[in-house]
Write a structure and sequence with these properties.
The protein is mainly α. It has a domain of 106 residues. It is built from 8 helices and no strands. It comes from hydrothermal vent metagenome.
Amino acid sequence: MSDAAETIHPLPGLLTSSRGYKPFRYPWAYDVWKRQQQVDWMPEEVPLGEDCKDWANTITDAERNLLTQIFRFFTQGDIEVNDNYMEHYARVFKPVEVKMMLSAFSNMETVHIAAYALLLETVGMPDSEFSAFMEYESMAAKHNYIQEFGTGTNEDIARSIAMFGGFTEGLQLFASFAMLMNFPRFNKMKGMG
């Protein structure tokens, strides 16, 4: 055997670019990308006519206030999650199939942003609602705190993943989504659920 054949080169990791499209080092990431493409949808595909009627006639003022706060948060929260994919993860994780997966996740965040914005617009809320989230001191502080997470070191990357995956995307958004999903159980706001 030649010396070149005997040399063992360690496989590059998540922080190393691919030499070409294939072979994939993380085939599961490609599978996730493909599945995400198969479940693609656009906000206009969701029927909101009944939600508009519910907004105007069925839900209480307290429910309307709760929904308003959640939609404000959702729109801004998904902007921050998308920014994390674009500004942090896409710059750090290098294999082609992982970037494909991350870009699919990022794209779905843009769909979520547009979907909640469409609902706000459809029920007649003004554009000022999109910045109202940041007028609350605690929400502005949360936004500023999120901006402190980076990807300068492996430890920073791990903290960022834990914070965005566990707290922002996990706890905050899914807890809010659970509240939203309760409305259709009572035959209200069924399009958003």
